[in-house]
Design goal:
elongated, mainly beta, SH3 type barrels, 1 helix, 5-stranded antiparallel β-sheet
Amino acid sequence: MVRILFLTLILALILLGPTWASMASIAKENVNVRSAPNLQADVVFQVHFGYPVEIKQTKGSWVQIEDWDDNTGWVYRPLINRKVQTALVIPDRVNIRKGPGLKYPVVDYASSGEIYKIFTEKGNWIKIGYYQENSEVGWVRSDLVWGE
């Protein structure tokens, strides 16, 4: 009985997997987000290199995305990077700490709108760094960023 339940759960996860939302980042600079999954559709907004997005669904060579502010649209699939996870800073000023906790000293500050690469997570803290340099900066609380 337990085996049947387990196999049923695994099958359900496999079948439902592609519809679940997942996080990704934008792979190029100035990527057009369109109102429909084709090149003739209107451009509704643009996103920049490293910008974190939530993938809502795929249709052929297109991916429907949503950003931190609930803006949605379609992006050509090769312009999405599912391997690198990034975070967008939301508040005006966020403390970046030496370690994952309030007891660690502040080593830097992040500002609203800045994008960082996520290196690892520990509890409700994430280790962030500079996206293009691939260098770590420090730790921030995960509730102060969007994308993890």
